[in-house]
Amino acid sequence: MNLLASLRYLVALHEHRHFGRAAQACHITQPALSNALRALEKEFGVVVVRRGRSFEGFTPEGERVLATAQRMLHEHQVLQQDLLSDAAHPRGTLRLAAVPTAMPILARFAAQLQARHPGIVPVALSMSSQALEAGLENISLDLALGYTERMPSRGGQLKAWPQYVEHYFVLRRAPGATTRGLRIGAPMQWADAARLPLCLLTPEMHNRSLVDGAFRSAGATVLPAMETDSVLTLALSVVAGELCSVLPGALVDAVRGHDGIQALPLIGPVLTTPIGFMSHRHVQPTRALDAALALAQDADWLRHATAHSGLLAAG
Q1: What is the reported pTM?
Q2: What b/e string do you get for 35-61 counting C-beta neighbours within 10 Å, with b at 16 or more?
Q3: Alpha-carbon distance values, 211 to 58, 120, 203 (Å)
Q4: Which of 51, 142, 232, 274 would you label with 40, given CA atoms 20 to 30 Å apart?
């Protein structure tokens, strides 16, 4: 039995919660994955996986094996990158994630990191806040961009590097003559925005809870004309349709090139949310993560991130 491979299959099963998808992610057949997991159970003399007609979770003993597998695979990655790299030329995969509304900034960050260190292969994922935080805690993610205000609820396991502060806008078709590119208009009250035909994120998304809270603070009740769990759909519902939307600055910046679009800063209240990179506080960083953290604290990068998010400059 290849112990390291079997542990990798176990972690894949934890991430995908499905035997077939875990096998596909590991580039093996489902029977091969099942056989490797049974060999793992034989090696340790315990049942690791709850099996029924489909994956039903892990036994208490399986949870302990899983936690050890996650640590061992991380230590293997640290050693592998240390052997293949030096301080000036880090090499290896770096698993990054961001909440959906911060993905435009994560994409810029990953591209700059790869340009600065061609030996690093960033893997950029879009995740909910809960999935992102869980991924950091179980070491399946190296670094994540999200809502740092949520960190106290995670028991002090995460450490943050502030990046920018988000402000919110109504995005709509510009009235009257068609304009070239996106224009920043006059501020709008949240109570007035509530009367527009809005496309908003679905209620389980953390960003939607922030937006709903701002509407409540303004004494407004909002009934969306459309809901989605896709930030791309939020923007396209305005660009390609007749709806309006409420977007943070990073997403507004991503549609700057579209003609006839207007973004109005929302006030009454002014909603701001701090966004930062987070990693596990007690895990040894890989060479690739050290390089990413250096970029995350670089003054030029921070100015770049701020220019493409937050309270955007009029254009």
Answers
A1: 0.83
A2: ebbbebbeeeeeebbeeeeebeebeee
A3: 37, 36, 10
A4: 142
Asked whether 90 and 81 are in contact (CB, 8 A), the reply is yes
Helix (H) or strand (E) holding 104: helix 103-116
Residue owning tokens 């972690």: 11
pLDDT digits (tens, 9 = 90+) for 49-86: 888 778 888 888 888 888 888 888 777 777 777 777 67
Nearest to 185 by CA among 268, 117, 252: 252
- Retrieve residue 72's tokens: 């061992």
The residues near 299 (Cβ < 8 Å, ≥ 6 apart) are: none
Beta-strand ranges (E) seen in 235-307 are 244-248, 261-267, 272-280
Backbone angles phi, psi at 170, to 5 degrees: -90, 125
Residue labelled with tokens 């309006």? 244
Instruction: Number of helices (H) and strands (E) in the chain: give both, helices first.
Output: 12, 13
For residues 153 and 140, give the distance between their C-alpha atoms in angstroms, rounded to a whole number.
19
